[in-house]
C-alpha cells in the first residue's frame, strides 16, 4: 500500500511483534503536548518483510482545528488538559476514531512526502524504534496547537554578542548596574595588586570589564558588537583607563599604595617688583632637577639585576600589626625600609657607578621666565614636563609663582593703581600743580583749578594711566589719587593777623549758650594712655572676685 494511503492506527493497539507505544498521558514532560509524545511518531513493526505495517499516527481533524484555535488565542491549556481532549476510539460520544477504518479526505496530505519537522524532538522520551519526523503536522496550513517556545529575554536572559566581560565579573548579561557595581567591589578588593601582587593581569581585566559595563553607552555597544566594537572606538574612547584610576574613582582614592604615574610638580617663587609687572621682564632661574641616568638608562644597574624586594613583596609598603589594648590591634602602614618604597632592589655589586643605583642623577638647569605686562601677584607660570624625571613616570611640571614686592608709592587693585598725595591747606583752597613719576619713568602733570576746594580724603583719577591689562597691554586701568590735606602747625599765624584771615574765610556758625550748660576743657588725646587705662580697669575687676590661695596649716 502506498505510504500516503496508510490508515491512521489506534494508539491503544500494538502491532504484532512490535514494541508497545507509550500512552500520551504517561508523558514525562508536563509541557509536552500530544504532538510531541512518541505516540504520534511513526513506528515500524518488527514483522517480517511483506507483512502489514503500522503507519504514522495522524492528528484527527477536529483535534487539529481545536489545537489551532487554542494556539492562536493563548499558549494553550496545560498539557494534561490537552491530552485528556484526545478522542477515545472506543467512546461512542466522540464519533468514529481512527480505528474505524474511515478516511477523511480533508486531513489527507496532498503529497506523499513528509514535511520537515520544525519542532525539536525530546530525546528523553524518544523510543529506540521510532522513526524520525514524528512531529510532522499533516494538517494543511493550520497550527498544531503546541505551546510557543519562550525566548531568552522572557526567561530573564539578555541577548548579547559575547559575554566575556560579564563572565569576568561573574554576572549575567541581564545584571543591573547595582549588581555590576557590587561584583566589581568584591573582585577589586580581592585581586588588588597590594593584596595579590601576582594577580595584576586579573585586576586589569576586572577593571576593563567594569569600565565598559558601568557605562550605559559602552555597555550597549559591547552587547551589540562585542569587545571588537569597543576597541574600534565605538564609544568615542577606544583606550582603557588605568586600573588604579578606576579603583580610586570607585573607592574615593583610599587604600592605594602604588606610586602615581606622573611625577610631582616643583613650585618656585620668583620675586618681582611692580615695575616688572607694569613693563614686563624676562628673568633667568637656576634649578636643580633629577634626570634619568644616561649610563644605565634608568635601570640602576646592569640589565637583569633588578629584582623584587623580598621584604615588601614589591608593594613598596610594609604593614605592621600593633596591639593597642586587650583584644584590640592596630594596622600601621609604613614605607619599606629595604627598597625605600620602590618595590625593587639591586645588588650592590651590580649597581650603576654614575647613579649608585638611584636611576637618576642631579643636574643644574637654567630656565627663562617671561613675565608679561599686566601679570598679577601670585600668578603662576607653567613649564610643562620640566620637573624631576623618574623611570616609568611622566615628569612633573615646574610652576613659577610671582611674588610682588611692596611699592613705596603705588598700590595695585585689579587693573588700577592707587596712590596718596599730600597737599597743603593753601593748595587745597587755592589750587595746585603736581608731578607724578609713572612706573615706566614718564612724568605726569596734574593740576587743580583755582577756587576748586580739595577736601581731605577726596579721590581723583587719571584714566588710562593704571596697570596694563594682561594679554591686552595697550589697554590700561585708572590711576586713582587720594588727597591728604596738611594743615599748618600750631601758632603758625600771629594773633593780630587772625581777624584778617577770619574775614577771608566763611563766617563762623553761631551757637546759643544758656546757663544750664556745662563748660568743659579740650585736651590732646593719647591713644597709649587710653589702652593702659583699659588694661588697669580689667585688672581691678579681677581683684574684686574671690581669690583661692594656698592654705597652710600652722602648729
From TrEMBL:
Pfam families: DnaJ, DnaJ_C, DnaJ_CXXCXGXG. Residues 1-161, 522-555 are annotated as: Disordered. It is a lipid-anchor. Residues 164-226 form the J domain. It is found in: Membrane. The keyword Chaperone applies. Residues 109-126 have a biased composition (Low complexity). GO terms for cellular component: cytoplasm; cytosol; membrane. This is DnaJ (Hsp40) homolog, subfamily A, member 4. The gene is Dnaja4. Keywords: Chaperone, Lipoprotein, Membrane, Metal-binding, Methylation, Phosphoprotein, Prenylation, Repeat, Zinc, Zinc-finger. GO terms for molecular function: ATP binding; Hsp70 protein binding; protein-folding chaperone binding; unfolded protein binding; zinc ion binding. One of its GO terms (biological process) is negative regulation of endothelial cell migration. Residues 145-154 have a biased composition (Acidic residues).
